[in-house]
Amino acid sequence: MDAVQKDLENRKEEIQKAMLMMFKANMTITDWDVPEGDDREAAKILLSIMQDSLDTIKADIEAGKYDFY
Q: What is the DSSP letter of 37?
């Protein structure tokens, strides 16, 4: 395992917790804004939004945007 892999593996749980916190925070905001809304549907939409963002980052990586970050 190289240094980058080791570093990210050491922070894996922290990164995953941050993603979950962002998801839950946005679910809470949606619940405040639309209390009568379907929470399962909101979760699916929010997940789709987050996936779109991850897909954009993935495309940027493939395009070399982070080669010299």
A: S
Look up the pTM and report it: 0.88
Which pair of structure tokens corresponds to residue 5? 């892999």
Residue reference for tokens 């804004």:
33
- Residue range 5-57, pLDDT digits in tens: 999 999 999 999 999 999 999 999 999 999 999 999 999 999 999 999 999 99
Residue 38 φ then ψ, to 5° = -80, 110
Q: Which of 21, 42, 20, 41 is nearest to 30 (CA)?
A: 42
The tokens 């922070």 sit on which residue?
Answer: 11
